[in-house]
Design a protein that fits this description.
This protein has 118 residues and is α+β, with helices and mostly antiparallel strands. The protein has four helices and four strands.
């Protein structure tokens, strides 16, 4: 795992986020998901700069996961390293559909899949 993935795993493991169980590095078809909450059918991907160069691959991967019933949240390495509260709020929102009141204090949430900033 990358340093960002390791830091995020600290917050996701042992049901630390909203009592949801996550697994890491899970095979789904031909892909490995960084983190998976099976109960919520939610995949969390931590993306570095190389992902900005290969958006078509990420889009096809996300489309494949959607055909299997998974939703995908992508967060950037630098957000994990510098804005963990916002990342956790975005993941919790993806799990529950309820926005965290703390996200207003820490700036906007990371962008969901398909809404990348330009």
């Amino acid at each position: 795992m990358t340093e960002a993935e390791d830091r995020l795993w600290y917050h996701l493991r042992s049901r630390r986020l909203g009592n949801f169980k996550f697994r890491r590095q899970v095979w789904i078809g031909p892909f490995i998901a960084d983190f998976l909450c099976m109960d919520a059918r939610l995949v969390v991907e931590v993306d570095g700069s190389r992902h900005s160069d290969d958006l078509a691959y990420d889009d096809s991967r996300t489309a494949f996961l959607a055909t299997k019933g998974y939703r995908v949240i992508r967060v950037w390495n630098n957000d994990v390293m510098q804005r963990m509260d916002g990342v956790l709020a975005a993941i919790l929102y993806g799990l529950t559909g309820v926005p965290s009141p703390s996200h207003a204090l820490h700036g906007p949430l990371p962008l969901p899949v398909g809404e990348r900033g330009k």
